[in-house]
Amino acid sequence: MKYEFTTDLEQAKKLDQEDPLAEIRDHFYVKQGQIYMDGNSLGLASKDAEEALLKMMNVWKTQEIDMWTPYFHYGQELGNQCAKLINAEENEVLITGNTTSNIHQCVTTLYHPTKERYKILVDDLNFPTDRYAIDSDIRLTGYDPADAVKVVKSPDGKYIDEDAVIEAMTSDVALILLPTVLYRSAQVLDMERITKAAHEKGIIIGWDLCHAIGAIKMDFAKVQPDFAIWCTYKYLSAGPGSVAGLYLNKKHFDENPGLAGWWGNRDDTQFQLKHQFEHQKDVSGWQIGSPTMLGMAPLEGTLNLINSIGMDKIRTKSLKITSYLMFLIDEKLAKYGCTVGNPREDDKRGGHVCLEHPNAFQICSALKDRNVIPDFREPDVIRLAPIALYTSYEDVYKMVEILEDIMDSKSYEKYSSKRSLVV
Ligand SMILES: Cc1ncc(COP(=O)(O)O)c(C=O)c1O
């Protein structure tokens, strides 16, 4: 998409005045004087999330054990709300567990290795938990990850080559797990093309949507992957460690859940407490134990807010504001050796901008001291996420102005390059 950006503050203010999502910012706890660019790690708290959490507390306080009757299907109900973000069918999406446990659930359900077809295909840029989960699930079946994990290597440490992924789909591959948006470079993989290629070769394929859900538009009715998993604490702003999402294509509802538990039992017999497990033949059959009600409630609030806006408007603003940030980096920061390390094309980049510089870690520390919250990723990446729901164009402008000052004065040099525990 083409925009006419300029480097003056007046334009940033004008862009805010014209922003159809400008007033959504008031739903969020945006700290006065702070510029928060880390919503792709932990989304800001909203009043909607807070109200939903307090409502759940009140349900517990006032209804005690009877609260289960109206809330028995809460995981599916929130799943149905979440399904709208990816255009999946209602009973294919569940809110449950965390991203990692949901990978285990899907892989142990759908990975049935044989002597001829036993490999799991992954890339080398995905978030490490996905790989840890895959390796351990392979070990559970008696195979050796050193042989059974097939890794597509990135040619440059930044991007995944889709053609190389498709070429790697050999007849010994049973299952594939890939990220939809790469957590570092924000590259968006073409889910439809890759899924189609996998299915043509009889391979099960799943997607990690952690950096995609709430950031980009997805159409599962078209893509028809076998499974997908995602967290809800980034672009969905449901709170630290909030309960995650799991999509299972309805064609797999007859499979036995890899990790079974009584909450996955058929509704009508669950409380008969028999020792014979019979799973519910929709995604709710993949629940394990009692749902984490207080950990799910904030998501109810944010999903209501996000669905009232719709992913079209959210993606439109995200593309515009990330374009604006890339424009300002090119115009104001390139001369200090800062480069844009994410794809430029609209359909190839997710919701954050990846600013690269050899002193990225020190620059992040300098930014934090100036009340700008970015995050750092090895080896030289500053991730900056202007979130469509609450970041203003003026925030972006001011952040770049602060960065310009840090680079020009070289004030970042006084900060240590040693990592702390959580960055
Ligand atoms: C792509 C991706 N997958 C998984 C995770 C984390 O998994 P979990 O939600 O189980 O902590 C992250 C966390 O940032 C991530 O970026």
From TrEMBL:
Keyword Hydrolase: yes
Biological process per Gene Ontology, one example term: anthranilate metabolic process
Entry's EC annotation: 3.7.1.3
Residue positions where N6-(pyridoxal phosphate)lysine is found in the record: 234
Molecular-function annotations in GO: kynureninase activity; pyridoxal phosphate binding
One Gene Ontology cellular component annotation held by this UniProt entry: cytoplasm
Binding site residues for pyridoxal 5'-phosphate: 99-100, 127-130, 208, 211, 233, 262
Catalysed reactions listed for this entry: L-kynurenine + H2O = anthranilate + L-alanine + H(+); 3-hydroxy-L-kynurenine + H2O = 3-hydroxyanthranilate + L-alanine + H(+)
Keywords attached to this entry: Hydrolase, Pyridine nucleotide biosynthesis, Pyridoxal phosphate
Superkingdom, natural source: Bacteria
Family according to the record: Belongs to the kynureninase family.
Subunit structure: Homodimer.
Protein name: Kynureninase
Organism: Xylocopilactobacillus apicola
Gene transcribed to yield this protein: kynU
